[in-house]
Amino acid sequence: MNGSLLLRNARLLDPATGEYTEGDLHCVDGRIADEGPADVRTLDLRGAVVLPGLIDAHVHVTALTADLGSLPSTSPSYAAAHAMRTMSQMLDRGFTTVRDASGADYGLADAQAEGLFRGPRLLFCGRALSQTGGHGDSRTRGANAREDHPCCAGLGRVADGVDAVRAAARDELRKGAHHIKVMASGGVASPTDRIDSTQYSADELRAIVEEAEAANRYVAAHAYTARAVNRALELGVRSIEHGNLIDDRSVELFLSHNAFLVPTLVTYWALKEEGREHGLPESSWRKVDDVLGAGLAALERASRGGVKLVYGTDLLGGMHRRQNHEFRLRAEVQTPLEVIRAATTTAADLLDLTGEIGTLAVGAHADLLVVEGDPVEDIGVLAEPKNFRHVIQGGELVA
Ligand code: ZN
Ligand code: ZN
């Protein structure tokens, strides 16, 4: 039977408690089950650890280069071919679900779901909404014509004014967006904005949140500074991406609004190390320092304050191979178990897939990772994919 598998002699990790149970795990029809037929494929794990397949809530699977300005003139079919390879490699790194934070569309998500290529389950938002001159506007100062026509491979779409942002949000929802992404502050990889700028007026942000909520979806906002983050939270944004420069007021707002923070530390680490080799322009490379050091301090502040934290990486181009290094970076200020929850249970909550993924509970998708070593003792087990023995997706051995 497809999607059926028996894992024997496993150490099963419950990320919610950090406790192990020794025993067997049945996968039936792609789901975790109480019991199953005996005549299915069986793996004797001899005491290896099984945990839920990992979730990365901030990726850009179509970002084939760190030179984001070149994406709008890239052929969509070329970008799709790159994305399929990138997603296949994500699966090998133990990620069985990813949330795309702009760029991926329904075509890629449908193709993955139909099994046309191997890769993690893909939750997409389409294009990120950006104001003129915002983080999603990839034009340099000298360029006037916009290249963000609907069929190009860019990550953002520019919309200004309440009516236009409403229409843009509705258009992404029409195409099946799982969430709406907005650029609510400046960023690193954009040519003309400043990290400390806020982007979009309160009226525009409010309109976008209203459209997302009307469709029972939510808004994820790119934002760095406390000023930008706090304003976005007050206006109803549910997921803050990056948040490197948050303050104590931000922590209060995360709690009172039941919002999530998705730090992406590894991208700054990777951009600093090797961004220029991968096409990041010099002007963007110089912005990295502003956010790199602050990121860990922000994570520590949020973690101490009880903010719901979710695993994100935000890697671009050839830097995708660093995806698991985020585990090691976060473990500088958090326990391994806290970091594991960010990539399993808490991520599932953010994605509105509680009980479906990120858990070994009966009924959940049988998306699993089998590793050598104890990740609760040593986060290095998850930071290095060489420790992964098997990746299982919907009850099928895929790596
Ligand atoms: Zn961003
Ligand atoms: Zn991003």
Question: How would you describe this structure in keywords?
Answer:
399 residues, alpha/beta, Urease, subunit C, domain 1, TIM Barrel, 2 domains, 8-stranded mixed sheet, 5-stranded parallel sheet, 18 strands, 31% helix, binds zinc ion
Structure notes:
With 399 residues, the chain is α/β, with parallel strands linked by helices. It folds into 2 domains: 5-52 and 359-397, Urease, subunit C, domain 1; 54-323, Metal-dependent hydrolases (TIM Barrel, Alpha-Beta Barrel), CATH 3.20.20.140. The chain has 13 helices and 18 strands. It has helices spanning 76-92, 106-113, 162-174, 202-214, 226-234, 248-256, 265-274, 282-285, 288-304, 325-330, 336-342, 345-350, 380-383; strands spanning 5-14, 19-28, 31-33, 42-44, 49-52, 54-59, 95-100, 121-123, 128-130, 156-158, 180-183, 219-225, 239-245, 260-262, 308-309, 368-371, 388-393, 396-397. The strands form 4 sheets. Strands 1, 2, 3, 4, 5, 16, 17 and 18 form an 8-stranded mixed beta sheet that branches. Strands 11-12-13-14-15 form a 5-stranded parallel beta sheet. It has a 3-stranded parallel beta sheet with strand order 6-7-8. β6, α1 and β7 form a beta-alpha-beta unit. It is globular and about 65 Å long. The two termini are 19 Å apart. The mean pLDDT is 94. It binds zinc ion (2 copies).
